[in-house]
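TASK: fixed-backbone design
INPUT:
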């Protein structure tokens, strides 16, 4: 009798990772669940769900009939993800910690740990796919267009993809919930967590306040007119409408105000009126810190679909310039609120090619 392949599943306490573990068990693999604790600064406050998530994972593992291990990656997380997150905010950018967390924790620290446990591969509950072609691995969109998470996984390498299974690749969310209900999993109706893993549901500004100093300054229009005061450039993001405190709300005069730019040198927040103001639209961007899934850069002669934020539809674009560490992307149609610190990710049909950090 041949030994069954061991796959370690990253389990978060949600329905997606629970069903991933269930499907692999049903497929005959030796499945071990791994619960990662990535944050412990405020475990006991109302917004931290870690304790409840662990209880849910234990219940799920019991129903499926798999072993479970708990591992603490809080030190690695703070060092590799959170410190970078704060650095980016302090520099006036808006980073995407989910992208960093996948590259540094879920597919690096977790993968290393799983291999040390004797696993051949790891699995997660991401809505994405992986396929081997001619000895190379491709990262694919998930079949559910509303849930596809390939955007967050675009920094994965060939070595990482070679070791990853995405059991939900071909499933839609409603099918995942139906499988969970039918199997009697206790998280079948648990609502999806939103927001950043270490912030949970807490108010974002209040959280940042603990770690970054407030440096108030003026809010002004592109023409130089002062229209209000900001509490610190780190606390705002391009395209932001709420929380500006300068009218444009219900009962306010004229169109709503939006953040259009940050003048770091003068500590000024540039705001404009109207969703379609020209300063909120850009037809080109520069990206750095590039990561290409194939290990080689894409062909600059082709047309691609680009996303400058997760929920966005693909926008037609080309690579106008490409160096080892930087590229310029040009869009056929101007894009709204392109935000430094976020990722631009390129696609060719269903294949995610990689991307970089918007400068």
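OUTPUT:
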């Amino acid at each position: 009798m041949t030994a069954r392949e061991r796959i370690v599943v990253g389990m978060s306490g949600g329905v997606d990772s629970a069903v991933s573990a269930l499907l692999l068990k049903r497929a005959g693999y030796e499945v071990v669940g791994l619960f990662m604790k990535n944050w412990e600064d405020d475990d006991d406050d109302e917004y931290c769900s870690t304790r409840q998530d662990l209880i849910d994972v234990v219940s799920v593992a019991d129903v499926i009939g798999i072993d479970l291990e708990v591992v603490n990656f809080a030190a690695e997380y703070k060092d590799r993800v959170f410190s970078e997150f704060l650095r980016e905010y302090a520099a006036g950018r808006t980073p995407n910690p989910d992208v960093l967390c996948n590259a540094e924790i879920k597919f690096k620290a977790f993968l290393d740990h799983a291999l040390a446990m004797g696993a051949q591969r790891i699995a997660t509950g991401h809505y994405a796919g992986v396929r081997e072609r001619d000895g190379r691995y491709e990262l694919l969109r998930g079949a559910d267009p509303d849930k596809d998470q390939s955007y967050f996984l675009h920094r994965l390498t060939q070595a990482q993809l070679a070791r990853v299974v995405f059991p939900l690749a071909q499933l839609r969310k409603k099918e995942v919930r139906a499988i969970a209900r039918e199997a009697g999993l206790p998280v079948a109706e648990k609502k999806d967590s939103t927001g950043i893993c270490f912030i949970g549901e807490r108010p974002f500004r209040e959280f940042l306040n603990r770690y970054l100093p407030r440096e108030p300054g003026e809010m002004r229009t592109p023409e130089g007119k002062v229209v209000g005061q900001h509490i610190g450039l780190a606390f705002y993001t391009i395209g932001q409408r709420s929380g500006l405190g300068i009218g444009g709300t219900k009962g306010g005069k004229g169109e709503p105000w939006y953040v259009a730019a940050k003048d770091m040198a003068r500590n000024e927040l540039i705001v404009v009126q109207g969703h379609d103001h020209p300063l909120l639209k850009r037809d080109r961007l520069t990206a750095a810190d590039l990561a290409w899934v194939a290990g080689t850069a894409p062909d600059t002669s082709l047309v691609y679909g680009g996303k400058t934020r997760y929920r966005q539809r693909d926008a037609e674009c080309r690579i106008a310039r490409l160096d080892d560490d930087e590229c310029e992307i040009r869009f056929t149609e101007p894009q709204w609120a392109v935000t430094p610190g976020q990722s631009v990710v390129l696609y060719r049909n269903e294949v995610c090619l990689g991307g970089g950090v918007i400068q």
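COMMENT: The chain has a mean pLDDT of 93.
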